[in-house]
Amino acid sequence: MTTTLRPAGPEDRRDDGGRARTYEVCVNSRPVGRITLATDARLGLSAGRIADLHIDERDRHRGRGTVAALAAEEVLRGWGCRRISVDVPADAEPALRLAAALGYTEHSRRMLKELTAPPGLPAGSAVRPLGAEEYPAWLTAAVTTYVEAKVGNGMPRERAERNAAEDHATLLPDGPATAHQSLRVLAHEGTDVGTVWTTTYHPARPGGYVMDVRVEPEHRGRGHGRTLMLVAERETLDAGRTVLGLNVYVDNPRARGLYETLGYRPTIYSLHKLLL
């Protein structure tokens, strides 16, 4: 039997050159599932992704998904892509095993924590809002951190810089006074040691989300990162939200370890693979 991809409709072309298309997964011309492919709007036209892959229940465990995923690589190569990515739910063990067998590796993971009561802060810790006069310096540092993280994980620098400027302008149009955005400074025994940015409303995510957490270099290794995460929990609960999410890159095991000890669990694994 032969498994192939058959276009399920016309290709969607964007003004910036991006493209997307849904295909039927067929076995001897019989549809057994669907797969949607697209270029990655964040990474650029040389990066593709599997936006969705579904195999009908009765046709699972027969290698259909494996062949469809391999065929997807050929389609994306034809589009000029040099990298393919896919987001897999943390509880989708068969899909994670398939991805690993096909050579995908973890790029980052989204994590989530259910919140109950506001946590206490260590003795000597004090929290205050980021002042308007402090915002320009904070923004410069936040954008720099964003850009370097994205470049380090495969995004072209020009696109990373553009995305950083657009994202911060969209999410923080009024700076530290923007509604649903919490910018807080942590001081320890009278000295500012770090900042945390928590958004308490996002249309695409439940609850709060940690957008940026940063401890000043000279104050690292003293537990202030943990305290800043507790501040994010308090801000989220104060806004009436009961879950807090974040994203952590695979090359930051120290941060991931901190989040795990604080009770965060993975919800989505972002995986990628180079197309050779």
UniProtKB/TrEMBL annotation:
InterPro entries: Acyl_CoA_acyltransferase (IPR016181), Bact_Acetyltransf (IPR050832), GNAT_dom (IPR000182)
Keyword Acyltransferase in annotation: yes
Pfam assignment, any one: Acetyltransf_1
Regions that span the bilayer: none
UniProt keyword list: Acyltransferase, Transferase
Domain N-acetyltransferase residues, every copy: 1-131, 125-276
Gene Ontology molecular-function annotations: acyltransferase activity, transferring groups other than amino-acyl groups
Cross-referenced PANTHER family: ACETYLTRANSFERASE, AMINOALKYLPHOSPHONATE N-ACETYLTRANSFERASE-RELATED-RELATED
Name by which UniProt lists this protein: N-acetyltransferase
